[in-house]
Amino acid sequence: MTDDVAGRVIKAERDRTRCLLDVDRGTYDRLHAEEYRLCNPTGTVWTKAEYLDLLTTGRVVYRELELTGDVDAIVGTDVVVLRYRCFIELTVDGADIPRHEAWHTDVYTDAGGTWRCVWSQATGIMDLPTAAP
């Protein structure tokens, strides 16, 4: 049962990332809970409505969202937490954000048989400067 739920939610997450690339409002609405919040790598938190507005107006344009490996899942009774690495490339308010890798953590809840994302957090992975010898 746990593996089945994890598989369904991982598929929903792949569909959710695809809808961000395609700006597919129907899928967006279905897979994001009304109370959805995204904490992006700058620390800014967007609501579901704010994020959708940014996508539909072109203020945020994803050019790539590619999962780079396995998706880890913690499955509870009505909550699933996902964690994975992803390559991301986008434009925000006309500024190009070059391709980079980030950790993503997403929390899904069961809304009567439909798993919907309620929280997302993306953390950029960066190389640390090396100390001078």
TrEMBL record:
SUPFAM superfamilies: NTF2-like. It comes from the Bacteria. Residues 10-117 form the DUF4440 domain. Gene3D superfamilies: 3.10.450.50. It holds the Pfam family DUF4440. This is DUF4440 domain-containing protein.
